[in-house]
Structure to design on (435 residues):
């Protein structure tokens, strides 16, 4: 950057440092950009999730490998989460999020080409790259929190997530339409949703690249540095404060990791389970659509509850809801759409409770100077837990049953309760040192 440009940037940052009104204006403008990008990002995420396992089953002809697509794009998501976090830490949210979404779009194009050429190696490689869109879709929620006050954080997260609903619900319900479109242009029907995913992720990346100016994370760091330079806003140096901070980071990470593992494992095998019991592709799309809607649509209410009644309460609610989902999925009639829809709604809702409460705990426990890097590192583990859940789910079902998978998942979710108790989050949320 040229000296003249550096001077202009410094002057712009100084104007935000000195004006709380301008900070709030940028906070609101950032949320608008995040909302727009998440609409596209949600469509890209949901379209691929709906048919990824079915493409692998069609190419390889074995149920035991149907968890591999989810495992691959969540592994890709893990690598991308680290990259997006590091880019955001060094250069701001705009380049980090734009690169992540654009990579996801390229991966989706690769999946379409693999279906055309029937290349399983290209499919697996493309799914890894496609996972960048999933990671970025989640990391975009942090952009809304950069300039939010502590009492606005869960609300900012919820606004980002609820906006994803518009695209996320539309994606699975466009499966048949995109499949027909794919056939018309000479592409296998199951690759159709990935055409939508490619367009959606590329648009989301362009939204961030063009509209996210000035960068909220760069502004937030400048404000934090300015406060510290005059002796305000210092982190507590006592060992007690340090312990509380570490516990908060661990607790927030654990809540997100466990909920991601359970949700991904059960969700991945639901389309296969439904196929075994005579459900059509359209019915699969309906169930997954309701599931993804439950993952994101309740977010505004969840954000309000997380801010008002506390992070720990909603983390425990997540565990209980995931348990209820697992029991219903395992015990209910497999041919009942009502049971499947209800179980998958509860699965999405439990994930929603866990993601928003866990994210809020993590943001509460980190400082602006290192927040993006920490967020990216934690999201790596969140993605890896999803990869593990997706990969193991096919093996568990192949050697046992969908019911066993669902019960085990629900029981694992209960581990959140002792973690929340151990971390004493109720007290931490009042004393955490946050800037």
């Amino acid at each position: 950057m040229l000296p003249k440009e550096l001077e202009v940037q410094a002057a712009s940052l100084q104007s935000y440092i000195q004006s709380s009104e301008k900070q709030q204006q940028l906070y609101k403008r950032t949320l608008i950009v995040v909302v727009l990008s998440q609409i596209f990002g949600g469509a890209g995420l949901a379209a691929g999730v709906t048919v990824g396992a079915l493409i692998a089953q069609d190419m390889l002809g074995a149920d035991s490998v149907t968890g591999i697509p989810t495992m691959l794009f969540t592994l890709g998501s893990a690598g991308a989460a680290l990259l997006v976090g590091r880019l955001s830490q060094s250069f701001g949210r705009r380049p980090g999020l734009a690169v992540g979404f654009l990579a996801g779009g390229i991966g989706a194009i690769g999946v379409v080409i693999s279906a055309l050429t029937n290349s399983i190696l290209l499919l697996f490689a493309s799914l890894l790259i496609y996972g960048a869109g999933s990671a970025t879709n989640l990391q975009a929620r942090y952009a809304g929190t950069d300039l939010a006050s502590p009492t606005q954080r869960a609300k900012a997260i919820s606004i980002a997530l609820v906006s994803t609903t518009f695209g996320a619900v539309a994606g699975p319900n466009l499966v048949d339409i995109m499949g027909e479109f794919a056939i018309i242009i000479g592409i296998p029907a199951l690759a159709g949703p990935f055409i939508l995913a490619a367009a959606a992720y590329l648009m989301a990346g362009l939204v961030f690249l063009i509209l996210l100016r000035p960068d909220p994370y760069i502004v937030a760091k400048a404000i934090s540095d300015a406060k510290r330079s005059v002796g305000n806003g210092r982190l507590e140096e006592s060992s007690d404060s340090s312990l509380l901070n570490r516990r908060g980071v661990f607790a927030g990470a654990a809540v997100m990791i466990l909920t991601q593992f359970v949700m991904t494992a059960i969700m991945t095998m639901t389309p296969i389970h439904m196929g075994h019991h005579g459900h059509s592709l359209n019915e699969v799309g309906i169930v997954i659509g309701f599931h993804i809607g439950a993952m994101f649509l309740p977010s505004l209410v969840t954000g309000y509850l997380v801010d008002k009644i506390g992070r720990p309460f909603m983390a425990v609610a997540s565990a209980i809801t995931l348990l209820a989902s697992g029991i219903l999925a395992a015990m209910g009639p497999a041919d009942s759409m009502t049971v499947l829809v209800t179980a998958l709604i509860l699965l999405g809702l439990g994930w929603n409770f866990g993601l928003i409460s866990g994210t809020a705990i993590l943001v509460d426990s980190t400082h602006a100077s290192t927040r993006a890097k920490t967020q990216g590192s934690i999201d790596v583990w969140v993605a890896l837990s999803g990869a593990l859940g997706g990969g193991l789910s096919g093996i568990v079902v192949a050697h046992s049953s969908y019911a066993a998978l669902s019960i085990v998942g629900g029981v694992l979710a209960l581990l959140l309760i002792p973690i929340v108790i151990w971390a004493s989050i109720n007290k931490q949320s009042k004393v955490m040192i946050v800037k």
Q: What stands out?
A: The chain has 18 helices and no strands.
